[in-house]
Amino acid sequence: MVKIENVSVVYSTKNARVKALENINLTLEDHKIYTMVGPSGSGKTTLIYTIAGLLKPTEGSVSIKGKKVEGPSRDTAVILQDFGLFPWKTVEQNIALGLIIRKENPDKLRVIVGDILDKLSLKPFAHHYPGQLSGGQKQRVAIGRALALSPSLLLMDEPFSSLDAFNRENMQHELLDLWRQNPMTILLVTHSIEEAVFLGQKIIILSPSPGKIMDIISNEGWGLRQSVRHYKTVNLVRNKMSRYVK
Q1: Going edge to edge, which strands form the sheet with 2-12?
Q2: Residue 39 lies inside a defined structural domain of this protein
Q3: Which of 7, 46, 93, 113 has the fewest Cβ atoms nearer than 10 Å?
Q4: Considering the entire predicted model, what is its pTM?
């Protein structure tokens, strides 16, 4: 379980102090998928970085499994919008990177990486470099690198935003398939209301800057597309956001 208590984040510049987040209180239950939407500048990425231990909150605290977050954790994986792949490493080497840093047993490492390559249909591209891959394939590699670490918490910052509509929908379905095989807690940031409703069991709505939690919607129609429940929830989220964004 992830607990975010009274978290505020302020960025200091030469001329001003900018409050990105204000008094965030949120609990992420184990093995559930949360999506987060809000206007640009609402602090969505800041919250991801804070939960990941990459950014220290100005006020408040974050704890995972009862332990206060003081820095990056081996139980947490982060996937960023730009994939974060190393262009001079092959697909296989990119996926293995975190395991190598952890000094995983070489035999076990090969088994884990081979399993990830199979699950994500990347085996034919194991020795390709990122520059030889499509956007969807790069995203699979980024997801594979995260899953190789067997995280209990997966944080995703607009992971599909650079993909075309066809690949974006495919990756959404693949993410749900992977989660069903290995349930973990996922928090995914997106600008797409439709994506948030399709993927999120709970949908978090942030206000304009400084970001505050305006609503958390339980979504009974998650994982369903072109259903009455899906469209009703999309309209509900859109209407709620329109109240907060002037």
Answers
A1: 17-28, 2-12, 59-64, 67-68
A2: yes
A3: 93
A4: 0.91
Clarify whether residues 165 and 142 are in a common domain.
no
Report the pLDDT value the prediction gives residue 246, as an integer from 0 to 100. Answer: 59
Assess whether 165 and 62 both reside in one domain: yes
Judged on CB neighbours under 10 Å (0-12, 13-18, 19+), 159 is buried
User: Could you tell me if residue 130 is inside a domain?
Assistant: yes
Structure tokens at 14: 């030469």
> Which residue matches tokens 């309209």?
235
Beta strands 2-12 and 59-64, pairing class: antiparallel
What integer pLDDT is reported at residue 221 of this predicted model? 83
How far from 101 is each of 134, 149, 164, CA to CA, in Å? 27, 11, 33
Please tell me whether residues 120 and 205 are part of one structural domain. Answer: no
Q: Does a structural domain hold residue 82? A: no
> Tens digits of per-residue pLDDT, 73-126?
888 999 987 778 999 999 999 999 989 988 889 999 999 999 999 988 899 999
Contact yes or no for 6/59 (Cβ under 8 A)? yes
**159, 142 contact by CB (below 8 A):** yes
Q: What are the pLDDT digits (tens) for 149-158?
A: 889 999 999 9
Examine residue 207 and state whether it is found in any structural domain, yes or no.
yes
Domain of residue 46 covers: 2-75+152-245
Q: Which tokens belong to 196? A: 């948030």
* Residue of 148, 53, 58 lying closest to 96 (CA atoms): 148
Domain count, the chain: 2
